[in-house]
Design a protein that fits this description.
3 helices; three-stranded antiparallel sheet; five-stranded antiparallel sheet
Length: 135
């Protein structure tokens, strides 16, 4: 797999399309940070770590369990997409970060102080790599 973050976002998008309550994502620190930001900003209900045995494996692997959020049978997340890819990195200085997105969503930005929503990064005057957009 060349882009694990894009895989995470695709798993969430696919689970939302078929109205699943939760989705399991292979664990990594970056993906856990993104999932926790989604929870903090109200896009998902809960995020937790879990272990599971997949197929004929002997050892359990760590996963991130994301409980998806719905309002009136419609998903709260209307769209989620990768912005910076392995082939095309996108960086914003803090002055370039938009105050409000046209889609009324948020950007997740990787800064020197860790992952954070775009408004928090702008407030702290931190720029960084734009990981994804959620609306």
């Amino acid at each position: 797999m060349t882009d694990p973050i894009a895989d995470m976002l695709t798993r969430i998008r696919n689970a939302l399309m078929v109205r699943q309550r939760e989705v399991l994502i292979p664990h990594s620190k970056v993906k856990m940070d993104i999932a926790q930001i989604l929870q903090r900003e109200g896009f998902v209900t809960a995020v937790s770590e879990t272990e599971a045995v997949i197929g004929k494996e002997k050892n359990a692997r760590k996963f991130i369990k994301v409980e998806l959020k719905y309002k009136d049978a419609q998903p709260v997340v209307r769209g989620i997409q990768r912005v910076s890819t392995p082939g095309r990195r996108v960086y914003y200085g803090y002055r370039e970060i938009p105050k409000q997105l046209p889609s009324l969503g948020m950007l997740v930005i990787s800064t020197p102080q860790g992952m954070m929503p775009h408004l928090e990064a702008r407030e702290k005057k931190l720029g960084g790599e734009v990981m994804c957009e959620v609306f």
